[in-house]
Specification:
single chain, alpha+beta, Helix Hairpins, HSP40/DNAj peptide-binding domain, four-stranded mixed sheet, three-stranded mixed sheet, about 25% helix, binds zinc ion
Length: about 375
């Protein structure tokens, strides 16, 4: 059995088991099917006979762990785009191909006499990544960026984004043909966009020259887009930025990228978000941070300070004897989280030292310093011997 058949046949489906089925499950499923479909039990029933053959074939591969592994890997390789049939295959669309993948590694026996597969793959790999054709394909992803204010980013915001990018031509609606006419199927490649050429033992496929790989020929090109079906247009889209985005984050907006050529799906839009600094707040994940300037006496005696939050203000209690630099946590007043709720507000207290005191305050402070010494307070008590 060739690998081509492996790609086309779903043995798991034939046996009615999942692709993660155990060897035991496969054996059981096969036994039951073999019993039901056995030619002795279905004399003259050619359909049952066909099924019996298929099921036996499936069992022969899946019951052998080494063969099963090989089968799984071969199929996985072609999973994303499926087995390529005619046009419409998009390189790199999650098909698991790598550019420098060596076709000879698995399809060692592929030769010109083998028909389709070698040809198709030859063509696919020849073209991989460096396509110059304009056959229908998904539009490119578009990257753009936007700068948000700190609070906008934290709370979520709707912003307009102005972008110049190719869009379907409004005159021909993306067909590339003059209104009233339509493209015709390329007779040279029968609309596939690919022509085959044999060279030695291998069959190669290359984009059709007549239609430049598009599969269709436009006799009367649209005057506005010169037959490409696309126009550069500046558009403004409104983008909802969810709350809680952070600086440098990239947001994906599906289907908002470049238009696909000739009716193919659009690409995605990726918005890189820059968040400007705030004078008051900082961020640590979902937590909002804030430095609260306090006086020495407020730390010693304790106080309640009104501090700003993203929404309104909150009273933060500074307990008596709070050390400079201590972080006070206000639960739930931070940055909104995706799934609901919010982080915390982390308030760091920081002593503000007056640069100048009036005579009255200076005199009071001198008296305080003496009283402090007399009370036995020594700020460097822990330094004994240093
Ligand atoms: Zn046009
Ligand atoms: Zn052609």
């Amino acid at each position: 059995m060739s690998q081509r058949e492996w790609i086309e046949k779903d043995f798991y489906k034939e046996l009615g088991v999942s692709s993660t089925a155990s060897q035991d499950e496969i054996k059981k499923a096969y036994r039951k099917l073999a019993r039901d479909l056995h030619p002795d039990a279905n004399p003259g029933d050619t359909k049952a006979e066909e099924r019996f053959k298929t099921v036996s074939e499936a069992h022969a591969v899946l019951s052998d762990p080494a063969k099963r592994k090989e089968y799984d890997e071969t199929r996985k390789l072609f999973a994303g785009g499926g087995y390529p049939r005619g046009g419409g295959f998009t390189p790199g669309a999650g098909g698991g191909f790598s550019q420098d993948f060596n076709i000879g590694d698995i399809f060692g026996g592929a030769n010109a006499g083998d028909g389709g597969l070698g040809d198709l793959l030859g063509g696919l790999f020849n073209r991989g990544g460096t396509r110059t054709t304009s056959r229908p394909r998904r539009g490119a992803d578009v990257e753009t960026e936007t700068t948000l204010g700190f609070r906008e980013a934290a709370q979520g915001v709707t912003v307009p984004l102005r972008m110049t990018s190719p869009s379907p031509c409004t005159t021909c609606h993306g067909s590339g043909a003059k209104p009233g006419t339509s493209p015709r199927v390329c007779p040279h490649c029968n609309g596939t966009g690919i022509v085959s050429r044999n060279q030695g033992a291998f069959g190669f496929s290359e984009p059709c020259d007549d239609c430049r790989g598009t599969g269709s020929i436009i006799d009367d090109p649209c005057v506005d887009c010169h037959g490409s079906g696309i126009q550069n247009r500046t558009r403004t889209i409104t983008v909802r930025i969810p709350p809680g985005v952070s600086d440098g984050q990239r947001i994906r907006l599906a289907g908002q990228g470049e238009a696909g050529l000739r009716g193919a799906p659009s690409g995605d839009l990726f918005v890189s978000v820059h968040v400007s600094q705030d004078k008051v707040f900082g961020r640590n994940g979902d937590d909002l941070t804030l430095v609260l300037p306090v006086s020495y006496s407020e730390l010693v005696l304790g106080t309640t300070v009104s501090v700003p939050t993203l929404e309104g203000r909150v009273g933060v209690k500074v307990p008596p004897g709070t050390a400079d630099g201590r972080i006070l946590r206000v639960r739930g007043r931070g940055v909104p989280k995706r799934g609901g709720g919010a982080g915390d507000l982390l308030v760091t207290v920081k002593v503000a030292v007056p640069q100048k005191l009036d005579d009255n305050a200076a005199e009071a402070l001198r008296r305080y310093a003496e009283a402090e010494k007399a009370s036995g307070f020594d700020p460097r008590a822990g330094w004994a011997g240093a």
